[in-house]
Amino acid sequence: MKPKVLVVEDELSILENVLYSLQTEGFDAVGCRTGAEAMGALLGGDDIRLAVLDIGLPDTTGFDLCREMRSRTRIPIIFLTARDAEIDRVLGLELGADDYVVKPFSPRELSARVRAVLRRCAAAAPDADAAPAQTGGGAAAPLEVDGDRMVIRYFGEPLPLSSTEFRLLRTLCAHPGRVYSRSQLMHAAWDEPDAAMERTVDAHIKSLRSKMRAVRAEPDALQTHRGLGYSLRETW
Ligand code: CA
Fold first, then answer.
1. How far is the CA of 197 from the centre of ligand 1 (A)?
2. CATH of 4-124, one of 1.10.1420.10, 3.40.50.2300, 3.30.160.20, 3.40.50.300
3. Which ranges in the chain are annotated with CATH 1.10.10.10?
4. 143-232: CATH number
5. Exposed site from 57, 140, 164, 176, fewest CB < 10 Å?
6. Residue 121 C-alpha to ligand 1 middle, in angstroms?
7. pLDDT tens digits, residue range 8-35?
8. Cα of 57 from ligand 1 centre, angstroms
């Protein structure tokens, strides 16, 4: 059976685009344009497996809708966000979104992220009704982030990082295993992100990797996900 994905977006052209793309990629995508409709769909008995939420909605915000959904179900939530200020809230502990996509986004990128989140959730909690799964099976990552001193220790060694590398690695450390796209990493690590800079993320990751390998050659702490982005290794 195709996984059912609920998309809440009031801008009709974006909604239609996203639904079309998700359907093409093998999902059973349903759309809503208000928070009230979305809660109706969620509680209406349909087996919705994941929700994609826009933040600016006519009758509520994506933040409030997320809280309302989370009080009733544990389905993963992906946000569509437009501004950096929103990204901070989306990533915050309070909301704890499973992922987010920065507008303007390509519908294919969103489909890839929906697939990745569903795969991760299926691996973490085979029984959807079970208690929230403990993440990962292995030991904690051998990384300590000292935000006050802007230092990250890897196997106890402080890494000699530039401020951009520090911000990149701190972002990856926040959610080991989560795959971040180049555009997400750029928004997290640069003050003025610009689409033309996406390739520079690769260069900084390469430099980070070699600094971490200098401390410990194996295992590879940073993982590349072709066509998606990068993540910090989840199990050690
Ligand atoms: Ca909107």
1. 27
2. 3.40.50.2300
3. 143-232
4. 1.10.10.10
5. 140
6. 27
7. 999 999 999 999 999 999 999 999 999 9
8. 5
60 alpha carbon to ligand 1 midpoint, in Å? 10
Rounded to the nearest angstrom, the distance between the alpha carbon of 136 and the centre of ligand 1 is: 35
| Cα–Cα distance measured from residue 7 to residue 235, given in angstroms and rounded to the nearest whole number | 32
Residue ranges matching CATH 3.40.50.2300 in the chain: 4-124
Burial, 151: exposed, middle or buried (Cβ in 10 Å; 0-12, 13-18, 19+)?
A: middle
Q: In angstroms, what is the span from residue 23 Cα to ligand 1's centroid?
A: 21
pLDDT of residue 131: 38
